[in-house]
Amino acid sequence: MLSANGRVKPDVVLVNSKQERHPEGAYYLEWREESKRRRLSVGKDAADANARRQRKEAELNARNNGVHVTPDANGSPLSLTEAVRDFLEEKGLQRKSKTHADYATVLRYFQQTCHKQYLTDVTRKDLLAFSVYCRKELELSPRTVFNKFARVVAFLSAHKIKVHERGDAPKFVESEPEIYDKEELKKFFASCDEGERLWFEFFLMTRMRAQEVMHVC
After folding, report:
1. I need a labelling partner for 48 at 20 to 30 A (CA). Which of 29, 91, 131, 195 fits?
2. What is the DSSP letter of 161?
3. Closest to 22 measured CA to CA, from 44, 2, 54, 7
4. For the whole model, what pTM was predicted?
5. CB burial of residue 41 (10 Å; 0-12, 13-18, 19+)
6. Residue range 113-165, pLDDT digits in tens
7. In angstroms, rounded to a whole number, what is the distance separating the alpha carbons of residues 14 and 1?
């Protein structure tokens, strides 16, 4: 939120067209380069954030006029905590709540094992250590460890960071689904009451997934 003199009002934001004070927030610069969205954390201090905004505006104006500009040497790198927060904010807008919650859990686990301050400091060893943590400390199944590894890779890829190598992903054996023959199904349905039989025949005939069944009309 800007005041009449063009300065940033400390801790003030617009919510539903009304000014509210939120000291728990932080400031970000956002702009576009070659149609790509760029975002940079500039901390919690309003005066410093305003100064960084003015420098970025001058830099972009110079570039638009064909002047070569050296990027701001004082630009703060994105912290791991801020990167996780930004990523989860976007996932909350793009994905279902179940997927967002899964990413939130995975990245919380990752931050418990990776204590790097900045996102750019994350290395392959951090990713491998996360897999070991999931397998030994959390005692998760090989398939679940693979899924959580893939979530972290997706998070890093969203920030254009690739640290893993081919073969780093945890290995797992795909289990064969259990199949019931006609005689087994006949016995199963014979033990169901009227309501249970309706539900389980519906599951069998439609082959819908759990979430599809939850929302079917």
Report:
1. 91
2. -
3. 44
4. 0.51
5. buried
6. 998 888 888 999 999 999 999 999 999 999 999 999 999 999 999 888 889 99
7. 7
